[in-house]
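User: For a reading group we're discussing how well predicted structures match intuition. Take Enoyl-CoA delta isomerase 2. Before you show the prediction, I'll give you the sequence so everyone sees exactly what went in.
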Amino acid sequence: MSRTAMRASEKDFENARNQLKLLTKDPGNEVKLKLYALYKQATEGPCNTPKPSMLDFINKAKWDAWNALGSLPKETARQNYVDLVSSLSPSSESSSQVKPAAANEKQPGSENIIVTSQDGITKIMFNRPSKKNAITTSMYKEIIHALKAASTDNSAITVFTGNGDYYSSGNDLTNFTDVSPNSIEETAKNASILLREFVDAFIDFPKPLVAVINGPAVGIVVTLLGLFDAVYASDKATFHTPFSELGQSPEGCASYTFPKIMGPAKAAEMLIFGKKLTAGEACAQGLVTEVFPESTFQKEVWTRLKTYAKLPTNSLRISKELIRSNEKEKLHAVNAEECTVLQGRWLSEECMNALMNFMSRKSKL
Ligand SMILES: CCCC/C=C/CC(=O)SCCNC(=O)CCNC(=O)[C@H](O)C(C)(C)COP(=O)(O)OP(=O)(O)OC[C@H]1O[C@@H](n2cnc3c(N)ncnc32)[C@H](O)[C@@H]1OP(=O)(O)O
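Assistant: Thanks. Here is the predicted 3D structure of Enoyl-CoA delta isomerase 2, as structure tokens, for the group to look at:
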């Protein structure tokens, strides 16, 4: 996936400003507004000026773009500015496909997440089909980075999907198994911090977020769906959160979103008892927006998404903000609480036994 240094320095920022002056092609108003907003956020922080009048179109558009960045930290805005300028430079590919990382910037396992951008859609694809797209520690980090980049790129919507027969089998259970006994507490603490940052990136994501569920989904990729704006599923998809079986507890804000979406009784069947739902059941319970026959799934869904991606991008973002903003504070609090509880669960005997069972089942096969 495309990546530059995680934190752009003042020098990188200055270089990007100079690079911008050398552009030979007008990047268009939308990009210029993004650059303006990121520059203001990076240098002054969150929007702090009075809203211009409705008739002051240009200043109003600039103000809206800056204001839409909310409380994005200055350093992140600086990084996003540098990334955006770099994507516009003449040396960048003319295609909107996100380039693979340069050899010296490539992180181990970075090919496990593929990010592309086309037709107004940024697609983030789990690409580890031989392991059913199980998510490793480095994949969590790459997804956080990809979401941050997508929040200010040119696309209208962002879509998650999986390569191969699975959407994703959730957390890679070996994340916790290659750990020496004396560093287990530290590993649990680090995992809890990472999980919190990961889920926060979904809570704060400003554009419509869509899941294209191509096959079975397990664990965290299911719980996160409560934070998505639309979920399209193939009829061969299933939805499974086997937390109790694993000695764990819900994450991804599902302890809050699932009871709201499907009612407490149905949420309990999934989150406490680990009932696996078919796509049809998940749709009947409101977790899935629509189910498509596997034979026409990809064609129908991507055609629809391309149409949606042509809608005015600011309007899409603003409508999402209206729908979601009241919940943000609550969701961050729920996320923090779930991560704290999980950190304790990962150190429990129940969880250790479940992980050992998974490993021994693997070694017998
Ligand atoms: C730091 C943040 C932490 C956030 C926490 C999140 C919680 C969760 O996400 S809980 C959910 C965890 N996931 C699971 O419990 C699923 C475990 N996997 C399975 O039960 C099965 O593999 C399967 C039902 C998904 C698929 O079974 P199937 O028989 O079709 O295929 P397998 O031969 O089992 O799998 C192929 C290959 O993939 C490996 N694999 C699959 N899932 C995972 C996984 N989650 N973690 C690690 N590895 C996984 C499996 O071991 C096989 O590998 P080998 O070919 O090397 O044996």
